Amino acid sequence: MRSASRLSPWRLVAIALIWIAALTFASRREWQLWRPSLEAAPAPVETSALGVWFTDPASAQARSYRGGPAAELTAALEQARLSIDVAVYSLDLWPVRNALLDAHRRGLRVRLVVEADNADTPEIQALRDAGIPVHVDTGDGLMHHKFLILDGRDVWTGSMNLTAESAYRDHNNLLRLQTSEAVADFQQEFDEMFSRGLFGAASPADTPFPAFAAADGRAEVYFSPDDGVLAHLLETVNAAQQEICFLAFSFTSDDLGGLLLSKAQEGLTVRGVFDEGQAHSNRGSEYPRLRAAGLDVRLDGSSGLLHHKVIVLDGQTVVTGSYNFSRSAEERNDEALLILHLPEIAAAYREECVRLWEDGR
Known about the structure:
- By secondary structure, this protein is α+β, with helices and mostly antiparallel strands.
- Helix content is 38%, strand content 23%.
- Strand 4, helix 5 and strand 5 form a beta-alpha-beta unit.
């Protein structure tokens, strides 16, 4: 009886090559599914009264911690001539620290309010050592703001903390407003914290200009927990007629999640991206609920944080700021939420939203 013939060496080599090719293809395919976005972030939009920039973690500049929104902000700090007020959750960007120190040496009035949990960093201590007054929050929640007021003329705000990770590794946005109403709103908020020591639930509801004309449209500014931010947010989202696209770091609001489900049932296109870490670790995340209902929501595809807190409505209106879509943001933290009825600005945010949605999984 003949035994089974053995495979020739050449056939073994051929089989091995086929396996190697298959493994290589699978590896490349897996890399394609998990890679950070290779599309560039949206180009900055600048008008006489407004400007918006987006971080771009995949860019060559970001990999070397150069350029981007942080460089724009640093340049503005270097050009300030009278005063700089800063309310920020965390700060470790050396160019920003150096610009603040230089402004102080040049005789500008420089003042800071920082979150207590992040008040003892070397960068903050360097500012204190130079004689810059730094006030620490005393509220039960977080002092989660990210805004600067330059010369009583410009407000810089958005989702970006003044840290290297936030500016170069995470997805964030930075917004500049140059309107007297926006300056008055943010100056009032700063003075409440810096001069009066009022944080969280102790903050009064006294925003001077919650709604005002800006550029070729309208803007709204609200602060939590005092301005009832969620009600304004829900009213704005409910007005959408065609499309909703969101980018969410932390999204646990049942009210907002339920409204998105209702808008999808009305026939609107609803899509969005969640930060993966928060979606899996955050108790009460709306991701499973929206996903199970059939909405095209995705997890971000980058190694850093998806730190945006953005909702774009019909490509005409954008919601942004430091305000996460959570109960803590609504009831405990010091936060800012901006609603910009400005199509040119909204279009840039929509481009960012679609870009990150296409890169999600």
